[in-house]
Amino acid sequence: MMNENALSAFLALAETGSFQNAARAMGVSNASLSRYVGQAEEHTGLVLFHRSRNSSTLTRAGQEFLPIAQALRDDLDRYATRVAGLRETGPGTLLFGCGPLTTGTLILPVLRAVRRTMPDLRFRVLVSAYARPLDLLQAGEFDVFLGDLTYTPEADDVEIMVMEKQPIQFVAHRDHEIHQRGPQTMAGIFDFPFASPHLHKHWKAALTKALGGGAEAVEKVNAQPHIECDDYNLLTGLLAVPDFIVGGMSNTFVELIRAKTVKPVTMKQNLTWNICAARKSQNTSDALELCWSELAKYRAR
C-alpha cells in the first residue's frame, strides 16, 4: 500500500497546485515533498502531475486517481479514530468489526446466543464497509470480522469461514413507480435514485455483470449509489417517501414491510451476499470460541 507521506503529498499538491504551498501544508521541505510525490507516482505507475516552474496540475491519470486517494485517506482517518476507541476498551470485551449487511442477519442473533451463556461479557461492534479488514484483524483491532472479504492478503494465521449466501433484497415506498413496472432487472433498479452502503469491488463487479458487462454498465455502476451510508437507520429513513430504492438483507426491512409502508421490488434476477467470518487462529478465548461456534451455525453448507 502507498505510504502515508506519499499519499499526503499527492493530496496536498493536488489541492494547492504549488510545491511550495503543499510542502508548507505538510510541514516538510520542497525536496521532501518532491520525493514523496515521486514515491506516489512510482507506487501507482502513473504520471500524476503536469509540472511547470510555477504550478503543478493533475494529469488525466492524476484526476482519476484523486478519488481513490481521497477514499484511502478517509479509510486511514477512520482507522485511526476507531483504533483510538478500541484502546479504551477494557478486559472482558469481545470486539467485532463488521460490514453493514451483517448486523441484523448475523451479529444480532450471535450476540443474543453468546449473552445467554456469558451475560457479563461486553461487546463492541464497529460497523463499516472496511476496505482492508484482514489487516485490522491481524493487527489485533478485532477479535472477529464479519463482512465482504474480496480483499484477502496473505494471512496464514487467519481462519476464514464462508457464511451461507442469502439474497439481497431491494425495497421502495409502497407508492413508488417501480412497483407498477412488474419484475425488474438491475438496470430497472438503477433507473431510479438508489441508496445503499458502500459498494465494494465485489458488488461493483457483480452489478456490472448483471447489467451486461459493457462500458455503459461500468459507467452506470460507477455512478451508484446516489446516497451512500453504512447506517441502515438513515437508509431506511429514505423509504418514508416514494423516491429512493434501497438494497439490503431482507430482515432489515421486515418491520417496514409488515407496516405496509414499503414493498419489496419483484426481481427477475437475484444477487447474493459474499460474507465471511474471520478470526486469528492463534488468538482465542472462551468467549471467542463460543462466538465462533454460534457463527458456525450460519456457515455455508
From TrEMBL:
Domain HTH lysR-type: 2-59
Entry protein name: LysR family transcriptional regulator
InterPro entries linked to this entry: HTH-type_LysR_regulators, LysR_HTH_N, LysR_subst-bd, WH-like_DNA-bd_sf, WH_DNA-bd_sf
Keywords, comma-separated and alphabetical: DNA-binding, Transcription, Transcription regulation
Similarity comment: Belongs to the LysR transcriptional regulatory family.
Pfam families recorded: HTH_1 (PF00126), LysR_substrate (PF03466)
